[in-house]
Design goal:
The protein has about 475 residues and is mostly beta strands. The protein contains no helices and 28 strands.
Amino acid sequence: MLAQVNFRDLDGSSTFFRANVLSPGSNELNQNYDRDTVFYDAGGGNPAEYNQFGATLNASYEYDFATLTSITSYWTSEGFSRGDIDGGNLVTGPGFIPFPSDTQDSIDLEQLTHEVRLASNGDGPLSWQVGGFIFDSDFDVTTVGFTFPPPVTVNHTNTAWAVFGQASYELTEALRVTAGLRYTDDEKDFFVRSGAPLQPVSVQDDNIDWDVSIFADVTDTTSVYARVANAFRAPTIQGRDVAFFAAPSVAQSENITSYEAGFKSEFADRKVRINGSAFYYTVEDPQFTAVGGAGNLVQLINANEGEAWGFEFDTAFQPTPNITLTLGLAYNDTQINDDSLAVGVCAQCTVLDPLNANGFALVDGNPFPNAPEWSGDFTARYGVPVGNSGEFFIFTDWIYLGETNFFLYESAEFNADSRIEGGLRIGYSGGDGQWEVALFARNITNEDNILGAVDFNNLTAFVNDPRVVGVSFGVDY
């Protein structure tokens, strides 16, 4: 049995919005941007306060033929975040701010999950597992507008259960096939608890998901695999717009069929590892969230189809016993396929998509929001043994993200160029890894990278964290 208890007490800040740090027709930070300055007339300092408690019990029992495992988890969370959403001062700016926006959202959540599974223990060519899963969630969300809108509290509940099974069979010593099935039933309910009409909404769906894969050892150090799978995402309800006098929105189920093939390999006496894969998938009725626009709404929608393809590589090298390097690269081409899907657009930006008669952007052919085509990562670690059980080490990690569109529609302003960030960690590990003390830094080059934007009021954006330097100490026992 393994029991875990987690507690989190956060007294911090929510996102810092920055008014008009983008200029019309440009996605570059302009002269209104200052890393150390915000120009708020509201938001109460943009506080974020949350308390979270969780407990998990993982218990297993080994029979002669199989292992029975039970995992139960219970979580509670409550707290709030408030923000000056327009990102500036109505009188002094910076730039033109047509109206103030100061809102707070809070949550009070209870969640329970339980999974039980039976997995085979045999050494023969057949291995299998069967199991069941239950999920239950109940939470309130309260939206408060300071002057507008009035407070509204809504309730969401979600109950889901599933049964699943999987089997693998070794056709030969080098060839293995695996197949799995899962039946899921998912139900969500919504109603307004206070501040507006009840507006109850209920959605439910069930589905049988499946996957089939084949894995083959080509040599002692190289293997290849292929997999095809089908799965669904249950319907979803979004109720925050009730606070802004709009009805809750619903996205119906989406269904994804995916194909993947790849290889895994090791060379040079396991000093070099190279893995790669390629994928293609289509999504019927993909769920998207249309955020913001001039109406400042959060609307769930379904497109007709989503499509994506790409590839990824991850590598590891150990040129000496003290040095380990990793390098990863991924390409992900996504596209919305829907001739008629139109969404609300920004109040002040330069929209690049065609508009329909109502002034909404037609997004057919656009990429998925916040899905860069190119991404990559690099790490390097150098360790020097000290005595019989200690080690001095230096570790650095870097992440690269390519050009990224923030919303469903495309505009000249609300997207990001390629970005890179790095971290550094220098420390000492003792007792064969039982304790560690380290000096660390995040965003060590102090990059100013745009992470997202608010599009309903002015040309507001928010950026990454500045350089952070600290000391950490950890113990394993």
